[in-house]
Amino acid sequence: MTCQLPAGLYPQYCLRLSPTFNTWCLLHVSDVHTLSSVPDFEVQGFYFYKNLPIKWVRVVGIVVAVDDIAGLRIYSLDDGSGACIECVVSLKSCRAPPDTNIPANDPKDLLGKRPQPMPPADCADVEVGSVLDIKGKLTTFREEMQIKIEKVKMLRSTQQEVLLWERRSQFRDEVLNQPWVLSEKQIQRCKREEMRGEGCEEERRRKKEKRREEKRQEQKRLREAEEEERRRKQASPVVVMERYRDIKRKKKQAEERWKSSSSSTLLRHVLDDSIRGKYSALGL
């Protein structure tokens, strides 16, 4: 596996136009090991055959070894192309059935009750010498290519295997060996669609953030209302009566101030009128 940038590599927004994009690519194992990795595309899990992006592969071969390591079952597959590849599947924990011949308190019985790692149902009968049709996702482990198994089919006849060989040769001739070239118009269209998608994504993100903020504010108002209701219910009758008296006292004080203010105003008007009449009699 190399890390050189393949010639004619297109931007990420153009990869969906590739005939190998989101497709089970039926390859020789030797071809899988020659795929190139590009740092800008490692996060997406893409590897490249020339400038063709490949993420999902399909291989056909015979199992030459089976190993169980750290909750994984590893099948070493040989397709006769001069290379082998490790195909990995996670083991499921399954509780073993109780042994009626062992006493209930025997330590062996307790050991037998522990969950036992078991392969998926479609891998249960696979053993050394089985011929498999494996579909999976490309991964790497210690700089070596691996396949994370998604689907497994055991081939029961040579005819099935030969049919897949023919399809593999056809895929190589019609896809892998054909140049993948995009016009400038196609590249620009993909770029515009990518930009529109980013704009829509940003708008969706803003709306989502706005809804989240509105929800937080609504929850805050509800909490405040609940807290006020809780305080009101927890208030003792004495406190309630004291509040009532305080409100009544303030109301009475306000009325007295208003009456005092009204009396002063009336007296001032009376004095002003009497003085004005006195001076008017003098002709002033």
UniProtKB/TrEMBL annotation:
Keyword Ribonucleoprotein: no
Keywords linked to the UniProt accession: Chromosome, Telomere
Domain CST complex subunit Stn1 N-terminal: from-to ranges: 11-91, 126-243
Main location group: nucleus
Basic and acidic residues compositional bias, start-end: 192-204, 211-231
The keyword NADP belongs to this UniProt entry's keyword annotation: no
Subcellular location: Chromosome, Telomere
Region named Disordered: 192-265
Name listed for the protein in its UniProt record: Protein stn1
Matches recorded under Pfam families: Stn1 (PF10451)
Origin: domain of life: Eukaryota
Record's GO cellular component terms: chromosome, telomeric region
Gene3D superfamilies found in the cross-reference section: Nucleic acid-binding proteins
InterPro entries: NA-bd_OB-fold, Stn1_N
Organism per entry: Colletotrichum sidae
